[in-house]
Amino acid sequence: MSRVTVVGAGLAGSECAWQLAKRGIEVTLFEMKPKKRSPAHTSDTFAELVCSNSLRSDELTNAVGLLKEELRRLGSLIMDCADSHRVPAGGALAVDRKGFSEAVTGRLKSHPNITVVNEEVTAIPEGRVVIATGPLTEGAMAAEIEKLCPGSDLHFFDAVAPIVTLESVDMDSAWFASRYDKGTADYVNCPLEKDEYAAFVAELQRAEEAPLHGFEDSAVFEGCMPVEVMARRGVDTLRYGPLKPVGLRDPKTGREPYAVVQLRMDNAEGTLYNMVGFQTHLRFPEQRRVFSMIPALKNAEFVRCGVMHRNTYLDSPKLLDRYYRLRSDPRISFAGQMTGVEGYIESAASGMLVGIETARELLGQAPVDFPRETAIGALALYISSGSVGDFQPMNINFGLIAPLGCRVKGKRNKNAAVSRRSLEIIADLTP
Asked: What CATH number does domain 3-153+315-428 carry, 3.20.20.70, 3.30.870.10, 1.25.10.10, 3.50.50.60?
């Protein structure tokens, strides 16, 4: 019988081990707790929810709701335990944190194909291995991973600007151009008049920042100044920084605006754009409130808010294939937030895909090749090939999933149609 070593029993490692084991693959699951914990963890159980106990929306008009439903239909351990330990949370799926984690732990420890070893792994194991050690990986294991990723492809801080969908940008208030019209018109330019800019800066100066957790590191803020800090250094600081209007003429007026926010393409399909220079540590609701004051972004859909915190993740498009395997050494796979998927459910989804595809390979079966029309496939294709410029971690969103190819009136109706198509595809797959 084939054997796979899974390192780390977070959501990704737990789901991966389960998918392998139920397909007849023997699994050795390493988890360093309770002998050692990261600064973020407090319990001895698997799949510990570090921050919120919410797994976000359960609606099929929301991309994470679709991803959860795909996982359910594919036999997810994480979703089964979550559904069994849900607590009231409106349209979201929230869980009893303790009960959920204990259920995952019990199911894994009782499976006859899984051997749990409570030891810290400090070197890459021999044979087939899945590394799911999480975004706080450090020490000997981080050093081992760095050896696999030459050229400084292991990132230790996450300083990410917000990302919006292109279709939600008001193009009546914006235009495509590059500064001084050099090259192609690659940027969406969002102008502000003097009064709009003054009001925007005033709100940015007083906006509420997110708390600094014990496992974050202030060094990230020194190397990449948050946009709100720049605003507090003077009303014109941003106009001489990321909002400078020099070389950008508004085709509607024929003149340079007072200030300009630029958006840059963030995925190969051109459906997602990031706010250039807008690294921020504001609370997520504050980001949406303040950044929506920019006229072209008044109705913007923020698929990812800006974050600045301690993180360890791979430059996955350079390193991993669509099965989350290391291109330079395919016996090694990665799963979870280290790959650049962001969020509890996204981590579980990466673990599921790795478990399914690894098992099929070891059993001599053809790969499933989850397509971009599915949420689980869209995530895998994003982290393996879908980024342009600097790769940054991403939550699942409809901008990553293949468009319908036909017009559907209304955002909710369109999202519902995408979800129906995705679930029909999942029903036809045989993983």
From this structure: 3.50.50.60
